[in-house]
Amino acid sequence: MSKAKARAKQVKGKIKESAGSAMDDTRMEAEGSAERMTGKAEEMAAKAADKMKKATGKS
User: Fold this and answer.
1) How far is Cα 31 from Cα 14, in angstroms, rounded to an integer?
2) In a 3-state reduction of DSSP, which class is residue 24?
3) Which of 11, 46, 47, 54 is deepest in the core (most CB within 10 A)?
């Protein structure tokens, strides 16, 4: 997954989390939190892959 898609997933999760909190819907809030954390992990993985490519000289 690209860094941009991972960031988009984080934003979507944050919106869902906020909406769940505003509507007092704990399930939606938890789903949003999980989606945000998944996006963060995917972003970190994409950054690590980029660093590996640079370190090995591969594009």
Assistant:
1) 10
2) coil
3) 46
